[in-house]
Specification:
heterodimer, A: five-stranded mixed sheet, B: alpha+beta, Beta-Lactamase, Phosphatase 2c, domain 1, six-stranded antiparallel sheet, five-stranded antiparallel sheet
Chain lengths: 110, 556
């Protein structure tokens, strides 16, 4: 069973937030804070969602807030390696075309 | 008739029978009564007859019904004529049998019916007595040429007639015994065939939604039924009726049922299933024979039935609201039109019962000797409607037995006795977000059992999780000591979630999906519920406390 977790690291000039587990109301606030903190620097931010097996609307809200925050500052914000369960929810909420989505971090760097 | 033979119809005068005749008669009767080998006894008997009658030769001729002629079965004398065949009605033997009377020919040269001499044996005179039985003459006893040039006389004729009596009795007994043995053999074969047929029928299963019974009109049946589980959880079923009721029908039944089972394993749509078996039967079945079949699948989880009907009598669907609907055949019987495209029909049992029955059921004769027809079957179904499925089938068959069964009779019932909604699960929890994970686990397991695919399952889990998260976040304002209850119900055609809380009432008018085109973080939950569920309703519970959300998702 995958533990819920999110951690930020530097990756070739961008801040990479790696999320894993099931994102729901019980800890989506932590994800929200982590993303907003990552956006505090001026560097581009990528959120790696490859290990996310579930996400609910509170998790999606954290991503949307990060995206809006970055856009307000002219900062780059992208989702990378989005897992199938996350894509399904983004599609359902019609947000799949709102976020810049890349298959890998390296693609996001180009 | 101008034949010079002296026909002697008169009864044997006992006065003319001496102690010698009584002796040989006793020997004869004893030998025949004690024998196990009628052929050997006959061979010894003709030797004794020739000796006793002082004749040069003696023979026994028997009618061969299969070949339509008369055959010599035993003889005594200088020339062996065993196996000699004479056409019926020909020769002195033929005449004795035809007229069922003793023939005495004292001079063969004057009798035009005499067929001539055999292999150098010169026949001068003939005495021939029929072997008389209740079914007429089955052969004749013949003696030739009284020794020392003497002539047969009427005493000889009486003695030969007398000796013919135990001979005929013994031969007749032997024939009856042979026939009895043969009949017993055939009966045993039929019993074996019946047993074999029974093993083709599926074993009765307890608490199984499909129940069936077959009553053959004779030892063997032209009807069959089958049901088996598919790997995907559905039940495949079929019911067939082969034209005719004899051994040929029984053999075709075996072929058709194994063909259906073989083709049903692939879980192809029912119309395709029938088409496949139809092609096979069209190629191999004798012209003029055909099979009426209904075949399909039943999914117990959703109560969906999918079936195709090739020439089978209409099925009766008795719905939960007691309406009865006739489902007629959409295609011809199997084995007639090689490339026929059979249609499939799909419907939910939804608490109802589906009855399929061979025409033996509708053809049962009622009180006025008239077939009860489909109306009669409907009436029977109504009478038993309160009983359990198994008891219903038994009661219907019991009623049918009281009337007169003329044909093979087979009845199958598929019952969804889930008249009431079934509670699949209940979660009683505190308004702690940590509880969401177990809610998701439970909902995912149930959705999986009901056959939703992975995507649908994920969406249902999401919608329920959103609903519970809304209770926690909005109704209780993020406070963990509230209480919620989630009940998961299986209705006839849908999965239903009832989510109850005891928080301050929320104005139902405020619960509505927002415009998705504006991109903002909050308020997505109800949108997700709205797009996943087929229907949802938010309301105040009747007891006036808290809130109630009902979400309905159609079964897959």
């Amino acid at each position: 069973m995958s533990e819920n977790d999110c951690a930020t690291s530097d990756h070739q000039g961008l801040r990479l937030v790696k999320v894993r587990g099931e994102v729901d109301l019980s800890w989506s606030q932590r994800l929200r804070k982590t993303i907003l903190e990552a956006l505090a620097s001026a560097r581009p931010v990528a959120v790696d969602l490859s290990a996310v097996t579930y996400i609910d609307s509170s998790g999606i809200a954290a991503l949307v807030e990060g995206f809006q925050n970055a856009r307000g500052k002219g900062q780059r914000f992208a989702l990378v390696a989005v897992s199938r369960p996350v894509i399904a929810v983004l599609e359902l909420a019609r947000l799949d075309r709102v976020f810049p989505i890349f298959p890998t971090v390296d693609e996001a760097l180009k | 008739m101008s034949a010079p033979a002296e026909a002697l119809p008169a009864p044997v005068g006992l006065a003319r029978i001496g102690p010698e005749e009584v002796g040989i008669l006793a020997d004869f009767s004893h030998a025949f009564a004690a024998t196990l080998d009628i052929g050997e006894t006959l061979r010894r008997a003709v030797v004794q007859i020739a000796e006793h009658m002082n004749a040069e030769a003696a023979a026994v001729f028997l009618v061969d019904p299969a070949a339509g002629d008369i055959e010599c079965r035993a003889c005594a004398g200088p020339v062996d004529v065993v196996g000699l065949r004479v056409q019926r009605g020909r020769g002195i033997v033929g005449r004795a049998i035809e007229e069922n009377r003793v023939q005495m020919v004292r001079d063969t040269r004057t009798d035009p019916d005499h067929l001539g001499d055999q292999r150098g044996f010169q026949t001068r005179s003939i005495l021939c007595a029929p072997l008389h039985t209740a079914e007429g003459a089955i052969g004749a006893l013949q003696v030739l040429n009284k020794r020392d040039g003497a002539l047969f006389d009427s005493h000889d004729a009486d003695v030969l007639r007398l000796l013919a009596v135990p001979t005929a009795l013994a031969l007749n007994n032997a024939r009856l015994t042979r026939e009895l043995v043969e009949q017993n053999r055939i009966k045993r074969e039929f019993q074996l065939a019946r047993q074999m047929q029974k093993t083709l029928l599926p074993a009765r299963r307890k608490d199984y939604p499909v129940t069936a019974l077959n009553l053959p009109a004779r030892e063997i049946s032209g009807d069959f039924y089958d049901y088996f589980d598919l790997p995907d959880g559905r039940i495949a079923f079929c019911l067939g009726d082969v034209a005719g009721k004899g051994m040929d029908a029984a053999l075709l039944m075996v072929r058709a049922s194994s063909c259906l089972r073989w083709a049903g394993r692939d879980a192809a749509p029912p119309g395709e299933w029938l088409a496949r078996v139809n092609r096979e039967l069209c190629e191999t079945v004798t012209r003029g024979m055909f099979v009426c079949v209904v075949a399909g699948y039943y999914d117990q989880r959703s109560s969906m039935v999918e079936l195709s009907n090739g020439g089978f009598p209409p099925l009766l669907l008795r719905r939960a609201d007691e309406r009865v609907q006739e489902l007629r055949a959409d295609g011809p019987p199997l084995g007639i039109v090689p490339d026929y495209v059979y249609e499939s029909a799909r419907f939910a049992l939804a608490g109802g019962s589906l009855y399929a029955f061979s025409d033996g059921v509708t053809d049962v004769r009622g009180p006025e000797r008239r077939p009860i027809g489909i109306e009669g079957v409907r009436a029977l179904i109504e009478r038993v409607s309160g009983l359990s499925p198994r008891a219903r089938v038994r009661a219907i068959v019991g009623q049918l037995r009281k009337m007169s069964l003329a044909d093979d009779t087979t009845l199958m019932l598929i019952a969804d006795d889930r008249a009431e909604p079934r509670l699949l699960g209940r979660i009683d929890g505190s308004s702690d977000p940590e509880n969401l994970r177990s809610v998701r686990r439970k909902v995912a397991a149930i959705a999986s059992d009901l056959g939703y695919d992975e995507d649908a399952r994920g969406r249902i889990v999401l919608a329920v999780d959103e609903a519970v998260a809304n209770v926690i976040r909005h109704a209780y304002g993020g406070c963990c000591d509230g209480r919620f209850e989630l009940a998961i119900w299986l209705d006839a055609d849908a999965l239903r979630f009832e989510l109850r809380d005891w928080a301050a009432p929320v104005d139902p008018g405020r619960i509505k999906p927002r415009d998705l085109s504006e991109c903002r973080p909050g308020g997505l939950g109800i949108n997700l519920i709205d797009s996943v569920m087929d229907r949802w309703l938010f309301r105040q519970p009747e007891d006036g406390h808290g809130n109630q959300l009902t979400m309905i998702k159609r079964l897959p």
